[in-house]
Amino acid sequence: MTQLLRLLTLSACLLLVACPDGGEDKDGDGFPEELDCNDLNDTVNPGTPELCDGEDNDCDGEIDEDVTEGDTPGYLDADGDGDGFGDSDSEEFFCGELPDGYVLTPGDCDDGDPAVNPDAVEDCTDGIDNDCDGEVDESSDEDGDGVTNCDGDCDDNDPDVYPSNTGAGFQTTSPGPGSWTFCPTD
Fold first, then answer.
1. Which is nearest to 147 in space by CA: 137, 158, 162, 166?
2. How many CB atoms lie within 10 A of CB 162?
3. How far apart are CA 26 and CA 185, in angstroms?
């Protein structure tokens, strides 16, 4: 209500081109000192958007509320699984550091399961979208080695790691039903 009264008074002042009693504007921002919460700073007045700077920029009595400019987007990591991804639908903005329970990266399609996130490898047998790409149990050959993740490529980002590679340090035994482990060995 106070904010509305201030804006109505400002509108009347602007229409009249002069403000009654004490309508001085010390910082020249177009807002008289009765409406301007800091009449010595022309970037602080009721017509200024709120910024992430620890000040009440818009003179509404609140500091850094509803900010989106100069702040940090955060995404709720509801289960705290530590996978580094949060729920894309939970975006909030924060000034400075993110509070506990928030992460910088969205995209977790099942924030109740730490094994499901955009960096996960798709398990082709579980009926779950493990890598959050909108597809369930899809086969892919990201590294172009001719072997898909569903055909036994346990590292589909490295073209030198695949089942039939007989180079030193690679395990090349055949996979069992529904599983595979063809990774470099120590």
1. 162
2. 22
3. 74
Query: What confidence tens digit (pLDDT) does each residue in 44-88 have?
Result: 999 998 887 888 999 999 988 877 655 666 777 766 677 889 888
Structure tokens at 27: 């910082």
Alpha-carbon gap, residue 111 to 180, rounded angstroms:
26
pLDDT in tens, 116-153: 999 988 888 899 999 999 999 888 788 888 888 777 77
* Radius of gyration for the alpha carbons in the chain, expressed in angstroms and rounded: 29
Alpha carbon distance 64, 48 (integer Å): 12
Whether 103 contacts 75, CB under 8 Å: yes
Pairing of strands 92-94, 102-103: unpaired
The distance from CA 160 to its chain's CA centroid, rounded to whole angstroms, is 34
Whole-angstrom distance, CA of residue 141 vs CA of residue 148: 4
Q: How many helices (H) and strands (E) does the chain have?
A: 1, 5
* Contact between residue 27 and residue 41 where contact means Cβ atoms under 8 Å apart: yes
Biggest distance spanned by C-alpha atoms of the chain: 90
Report whether 132 contacts 116 (CB < 8 A).
Answer: yes
**What are the domain boundaries of the chain?**
1-63, 71-129, 139-186
